[in-house]
Amino acid sequence: MPYLERHDSGPIAHLTLSSPERLNALSEGMLNALQTQIDALRNDKSIRSVILSGAGKAFCAGHDLREMSDGRQSPDGGAAYFKDLFARCTRVMMGLQSLPQPVIAQVHGIATAAGCQLVATCDLAVAAEGTRFGVNGVNIGLFCSTPMVALSRNIPRKQVFEMLTTGSFIDAERAQSIGLVNCVVPEADLPTATIELATTIASKLGSAVTVGKRAFYEQLQMPLGQAYAFTGDVMVQNMLNRDTEEGIAAFLEKRDPEWSQP
Question: Phi and psi of 124, rounded to 5°?
């Protein structure tokens, strides 16, 4: 079975972590498979939204601890192995966020450690009732420092610091209340709810969403004045797009837009 399965339905790409016997751990093989699909999606103009889910009883349980234990056996105690592993994981996380298409995590079961990081990295997240989230590395003596980066950019600092230092799980409802996920639905409704969100996004002008996603993350890193100047320039360029002109005209004329591109 491949580490990652992809099937497309119209403008939506469905990526499924497919190592259920290991709770879809982010093994070396899984990271490689994710990177391959990220590279493929980056230039795929037919895809306008992406859903990331997990096969079996869990979304993702984080890094593969068995592989990490084996990596420690090298003469340097695993330093080179761990540096490479976390660098490749970082590349995957940053790659998902830099994709032109919005990425939606479809989460069930558990999302722990780097699996919780994966949820925080995705642009949006829909969770099933009963899902548990945690950065539990501290329980085995490993502080979840890299997951902390994505989590601290999603939820209030005291909430994420509590998760990091206690190693405790939070439920889906609390995850929604602190901003880690967008909505919580019954597990039976999870695929439908996620597809509905992905379909809504895919129905918008793709070039506008692509520009908007890139600007969203760039302006977050800027001081307020710089962010307004930057996004003002982005809006100027967006307004000069002929399809945007058509969208405004269609709204004023109370008709559907006829865009030249998806």
Answer: -145, 160
Q: Which of 111, 22, 114 is nearest to 66 (CA)?
A: 22
Q: Collect all residues with Cβ–Cβ distance below 8 Å to 175 and sequence separation of at least 6.
A: 127, 131, 133, 181, 184
In the chain the domains, ranked by start, together with CATH numbers, are: 4-202 (3.90.226.10), 206-252 (1.10.12)
At 109-154, the pLDDT tens digits run: 999 999 999 999 999 999 999 999 999 999 999 999 999 999 999 9
* 238 close to 246: Cβ distance less than 8 angstroms: no
What's the rounded Cα separation, in Å, for the pair 187 and 127?
Answer: 8
Q: Which residue has the tokens 């980066």?
A: 149
Strand partners, 9: 12
User: How far, in Å, CA of 125 to CA of 119, rounded?
Assistant: 7
What tokens were used for 56? 């079996």
pLDDT tens per residue across span 63-101: 999 999 888 887 887 899 999 999 999 999 999 999 999
| Single-letter amino acid code for the residue at 154 | N
